[in-house]
Amino acid sequence: MADQTASAEDDQSEFSRFITGLGRGVAGALFFALPMLMTMEMWYLGFYMARERLLLLFILNIPLLVVLAHRIGFEKTVSWRDAARDAVVAYGIGILTSVIVLAALGLLRGDMSASELIGKIALQSVPASIGAMLGRSQLGDDEDDDTEEKATPYHSELFLMGTGALFLSLNIAPTDEMMVLSYKMTIWHALVVSLLSIALMHGLVYAVSFIGGHELSPETPWWHAFVRFTLPGYVVALAVSVLTLWIFERLGDSSAIEIMVSVIVLGFPAALGAAGARLIL
Predict the structure, then answer these.
(1) What is the C-alpha to C-alpha distance for residues 130 and 134, in angstroms, rounded to an integer?
(2) Looking at residues 175-179, what average pLDDT do you find?
(3) Is there a contact between 267 and 197 (Cβ–Cβ < 8 Å)?
(4) What is the tens place of the pLDDT at every residue in 102-143?
C-alpha cells in the first residue's frame, strides 16, 4: 500500500512538472517569438514565399527541436523517444500560440485562402516552437537544475550554436533594413563587422564571465577555445545565415559580392545567437 502511494505521488509530481513545463513553453513562445509575430515582413512572407522553402524550414525545425528537447525538454528526458515527444509538444505550442496571436491581431481572416492561412501559421510556428523549448531553460527555477548537467559532445555544441544562430537570424533576415544595410556597406565595412562578430562571440562566452559562460583553465592556451569553438561557431553562423537568406528569398539575382556582404551582415546577429546558445543551453 505504501509503495502504491509513493508511486502515485511520484506520478503526480512528474505530471505537475510536465504541466509547469508546458506553462513555461507557452510563456517562452510568447516571449521569444512575439517580435516576429508582430513584424509586417513575416506576415507577407507567409503569403508569398515559395512553399517548398517553407516546407524545408518546417521540416528542418523538427530535428532541431528534438535535440533541444533532449537537452532542455519540458521534463528531464532519458531517451530520444521522450525528446521526440517533447519536440512534438513544443511544435504544437508554437502552432497554437501563432494561431491565437495572429487571430487576435486580425491577421487571420475568414476571407483568406487556405494557402495564405497555413503559410502564415507555419512560418510563425518555427520561431514560436523554438521559443517554447527555450522557455524551460530561461524561465525555469533552481529546483530544475538539481541534477548533474548532461555532458555535451562537440558536434552537439556546434548544433546548439546553430540553433541560436537560426533563432536570431529568423528575427532579422525577413526585414528590409537588413538588405538596406548590406547595400550601403562596402567590403571594408563588412570586414570590420566580421571581425567584430568573432570578437564579441568569443568574448561573450570566455571573457566577460556571464552566468553559463566558459572559463579557461590556466594551463589551456588562449587560442585553444578560439580555434576549437569560436571560429567553427562563426562558420556555422554564416552557414545558417546563407540558409536563412535563401529560404526567405533574399539572395535573388545579387552578385557574389552583394551576397557575401548580406551573409556577413546577417552573420553578426547570428554569431551573437550562437554565443548565447552556448551560455544558456
Answers:
(1) 6
(2) 83
(3) yes
(4) 999 999 988 888 888 999 999 999 999 998 888 766 555 545
Residue identified by cell 569553438 is 229
User: DSSP secondary structure string, 88-107?
Assistant: HHHHHHHHHHHHHHHHHTT-
216 in Cβ contact with 225 (< 8 Å)? yes
Q: How would you classify residue 249: left for phi > 0, otherwise alpha for psi between -120 and 50, otherwise beta? A: left
* C-beta separation of 97 from 128 below 8 A: yes
Between CA 261 and CA 178 the distance in angstroms is 11
Global confidence as pTM:
0.80
> For residue 12, with 0-12 CB atoms within 10 Å meaning exposed, 13-18 middle and 19 or more buried, which class applies?
exposed
Q: What is the per-residue pLDDT across 70-91, written as a single tens digit (0 to 9) for each?
A: 776 655 555 778 888 888 989 9
Per residue in 150-176, pLDDT (tens digit) is 556 777 788 888 988 998 898 888 888
Q: Are 234 and 162 in contact (CB under 8 A)?
A: no
